[in-house]
Amino acid sequence: MDDEPYFYHPLENIEDIDEFETAIERTHFNKALSEERPYTYWTLEIYDQENGIRGGGGLGVLAADTRRVAEQMGVPFALITPFYPAESKQILKDNKVADEHIKVDYHDFGFRLIDNVYVKCCGNLCKLDVIEKRFKNTRIICVTEPNFGELYSGMSGSDHRLYQEVSLGFGGYSALKLLGLKPAIMQLNEVATFFAALARLDELASNGMDFYEAVVYTRKHTLYTNHTLVQAAEAEFSEEQFERFVYPNLKSPAVKKWLKDKFENSKLKLSSVTIEIAELRSGVSKLHARVANYHDISGNKVKFRAITNGIDFDKWVLPEALTFYKKYDIIDSIGLPTANYKVALDNLTSKTVREIKHLGREVLNEVLSDRPDQNGKILHFTDQDFIFDFKRRFVDYKRPDLPFEDPTRLKAILKSRDAHYIIAGRIHTGDERMAARLEKLLNTVKNDDYLSAHVHYIPNYDEKLAYGLSCGSNVAINIPIVGLEACGTSWMKDIANLNLLISTHDGGVADVSAENYLNVHGTSEAEELEELYRRMEEAISAWENDFDLEFLMKKQLAAFLPVISGARMLNDYLEYLF
Ligand SMILES: *Cc1c(COP(=O)(O)O)cnc(C)c1O
Asked: Which of 167, 174, 262, 491 has its CA 20 to 30 A from that of 439?
C-alpha cells in the first residue's frame, strides 16, 4: 500500500476539497522517484513496433518516445499499456483500402509472463496475463489475454472498449502491486486510462485511508494529458455499462458512491471524472492548451499546462545527422539543445545538408524496396530527384486531398522540377468516407499519365515509412485546418532530418512564430491552397540555391530544436510534477 500522508482534517464531503487542500498545504507529498516508486505512464496506445505493439498515430508515438527519453535521462519509469494480440495492416486493391488482421505473439518480442491478475466483468472473472519487458531504468508492463482484441476495435463507447479500458486500469494497477511498484506519479495519456487512477483511489479508500484524504492524495499524484480539443465529441458510457464493467471492481462503497454521483441522465464522459481525479492537467502544445475547451463538473473552464510534445532524437533522426548535431554541440548527449545551439548552427552548410540528404535518401530507398506504390511499382530515387511528402493519418482535418483540388496547377509545379509527391497515411479502420476520398484522389492521379508517374501512395503507413520519408524527402507538407491539430509530431521528424516544412500555423508548429518555416495561411481554403502552391514553388527554388537552403534550414532548426526535443518535453513534465 502507498505511504500514507498524515492528515487530520477529515471533511464532510468532496465539495470541500479546495478547503481541504489549503488545510494540508504544509504537508509534504513524497513524489520522489526511485526504482520501486517510478513515474508511471498509462496509455491505451503505444506505437512501438520494435516491441511488438503497433499504434494508431501520434498519441502512441508520444508514449513510446516518452519512455525512450526517460531511459536516456535515467528516470525510473514504468509504462503500462495493453498488449493487443492482433493488429491490422492496410493494403490497397484497385485504389480501395482494406484491412488485413495479423496475430501478434508477445513471446516474439522479449516480454516475459509475470503472473495473472483478474478483473470482474459482467459477472465473470476475467483473467489477464501480466507481461513485462525491462530496459535499464524503464519497463513496459502489459496486460493481455487472447481475446483482448485490436487497438480501437469497436466504437469508442462500446462494451468492448470499456472492457479494454477497465482491464488496463484495474488490471494494470494490480500488475504494479504484483511487481512491488508504487506509482510516484500517474500520468494518464488521455481519458481512456482514467480507471488506473480510480483503481488507486479505491485501493487507498478501502485500506483505511479516509475517503477524502484518498481523493486528495490521488489528485495530487495524477496528471491528465489531454490531446483532444472538444469535450463534446467524446463518447459516453451508460450507468448500465458501469454496473457490468466498473462497479464490480470497486471495493470501497464511498468510491462507488462518488462515481455514481457523477452520472448525468445515466451517462458519463470519462473526461468529467478524469478532471476530478487529476489535479495536474496538461495539453500537448501551447495553442492546444489554450484552446482545448473543457469544463469541470461545476462548469468551470479547465486550465491545461502547455507541455508541447517532443520526439526521441535517437529513434527518429538519421544517425549521421544526430552525430553532426552532437559533434558541433548543437544538442547535448541526452538530446537537449545546448545553451549555445543557435551559434553552433552556423556549422550547418548547404553542403552538409545535401550530404545528409544523400544518406537519408538511401534509407528511404531501402524502406521503399518492399513497399510498392498504388501502381505496384517499387520506387527508387537518386540524389537528383525532388520529393514532396504528405505523411500523416488520412483524416478530414489534416486535409490530405487539398493539394489535389487543382490537379492542373499541382501538375505544373511538379513538372517544373520533375518532382515526386509521396502520400502515406492510414485510414482509420472502417472510415468509409475517408476511404472514398482516397479512392477519388487516386483516380484523379490515375487519369493523368504525368501525375500517375509522379504521385505515389504507399499503403500501410507506419513508423518505418515515417522515418524513411522524413530522412529522404526534401519538403514535408502539413496543412491541418488551423485550430484542429493538437500538436502533431510528424513535422518534428522532418525538421530534425532537414526537410523544409510547409505548414499551416497549428498545433506545436504554432509554438514559434510563423516566419520560421514556409507558412501557409489565408482567410479561406482557396487562399490557403493558393499559398500552398506558392510555397511548393518556393521550396523547389530554395533547394536549387545553396544560400537559400542554408538560410531556411538554419532558421527552422534555430526556432524549433527546443520545441521538438523529447528531453525538453520530459524535463517540462518533471518540472511541472515535482
Ligand atoms: C510520427 C507518426 C505519427 C504522428 O503523426 P501526426 O499526425 O504528426 O501526429 C503517426 N503515425 C506514425 C506512423 C508516425 O510515425
From this structure: 491
